Amino acid sequence: MTIWIPELSEDGPRYRALAHAIERAIDNGELPPGEKLPPQRRLADTLKVTVGTVTRAYALVEQSGRVSAQVGSGTYVKAEQNAEGFSRVIGAPHDGLVDLGMSLPPPHPERQATLGRFLSEISADPAALEQATHYPLDDTMATHRQRYADWLSHQGLAVDPDELLVTQGGTNGIALALSALLSPNDRLAAEALSYPGVISTARQQSLKMVAVPFDDEGIDVTALAARHERTPFRALYLMPEHHNPTTVQLSEKRREALVALARERDFWLIEDGVMHLPQKARGTPLYQLAPERTIFVFSVAKILGGGMRSGVMRAPVALMERLRTSLRNQCWAPPALMTDIAGRWLASGEADRLLSWQFEELEARQVMVREALKDLDMHMRCGGFYAWLVLPGEHRAARLVETLEQKGVRVAPAEAFCVGSTAAPQAIRICLSAAPDRAALAQALNIIVETLSQNTPPRWQTV
Ligand SMILES: Cc1ncc(COP(=O)(O)O)c(C=O)c1O
User: Fold this and answer.
1) Which domains occur in the chain, in start order?
2) 289 C-alpha vs ligand 1 centroid, how far in Å?
3) Distance between the two ends of the chain, CA-based, in angstroms?
4) What 3-state class would DSSP assign to 395?
5) How far is the CA of 296 from the centre of ligand 1 (A)?
6) HTH gntR-type domain spans which residues (predicted)?
7) Is-contact 187 231, C-beta < 8 A?
8) Ligand 1 centroid to residue 389 C-alpha, Å
9) pLDDT tens, position by position, 402-455
10) CA dihedral 231, 233, 239, 245 (to 10 degrees)
């Protein structure tokens, strides 16, 4: 029987290098859930280290929560890695909770009434009802593609309808892009902190994730080139306008360097544009800089509402057939009714009005957050939903999140966004748009500020 042999490329103590290699292998799917780690003596002989080194390494990995040792049987990779942080963020609502954990557009008093008007319009339109009950065909989707293309172009995101595929939203677009571009065991690069949906989808599609450092100008293109040299990847997923969770925007200089590198090394770019900022706050889309190798993912979730489950992806025409096949295999097509509602909403000018209101509301909420969290290391972006707060003093994100939850405020810890074995910074994401109104936001901010001012030292947990 062959055994899994880790590559110990790291300097420092051998047990630590081995523990990190195992953690990386688990995080990138090389060691899947349920897999048994090699017997300690065999691995020690293979690596030419002592059994004690392997025992210490296994104990470290167990402490990280990735494996469990079963007496007399061996050490096994646990199921559902990384799921805890995210499931806590999307946990059940409860009475009195101000939930700033989910990424939601600010509640507009007229949103539901507007939806009701489109439903009435459709219910009085026999052709629309006929389409809503029929399997959607390519020619009916052409109308929907055109509506999306017109609206995006008017928002400064010029697209050709022939390069669009209508999807069930951003999550669906990302999954389609990954399944069309990559095969199991291929590598997907992403910023070291990234959208949890892409981490989870990559895991499900058995892709190996490569974490790339980033700073306040976005992804570090020099580090990206070095990662590609060491572990070539087929695609890079990123959010150039508004990085989730940190709000960082990719600078124009880096966009150019990134596109040059993608062309030189021949990898794909998956550009997530789901967080839709005002035009004046956006840079040049990557799909315009490198149309031949970029898939742009868009959704109406952050404008019309997450329940709409509608969006589009823009891809080079050469990829369209592959993407269409993936979509058909998943669900044939997005529901015609939801696509029709989203399209009418965009074409009527109502979405623009909603968006203008949203940008104003976000600005007012950002003023409140800036005032409440002044003097702290906090980041926001014009038109964005989040405040990214790097915790002061000795605060630990996991403990703070727990304390805030007990006090009735839910926020997301950095841990929920970590790619692979990336160490989580002590930081939290506060979704300021998700509060039901400004009063609830003010109440939550007071609780956050009060909790931070208590500066509880870390608990003494072990000797
Ligand atoms: C960056 C990013 N991409 C994609 C999505 C998913 O979009 P959708 O709700 O349309 O599936 C989200 C949702 O929060 C997101 O934050």
Assistant:
1) 14-77 (1.10.10.10), 83-104+352-454 (3.90.1150.10), 111-348 (3.40.640.10)
2) 23
3) 41
4) coil
5) 13
6) 12-80
7) yes
8) 21
9) 999 999 999 999 999 999 989 999 999 999 999 999 999 999 999 999 999 996
10) -40
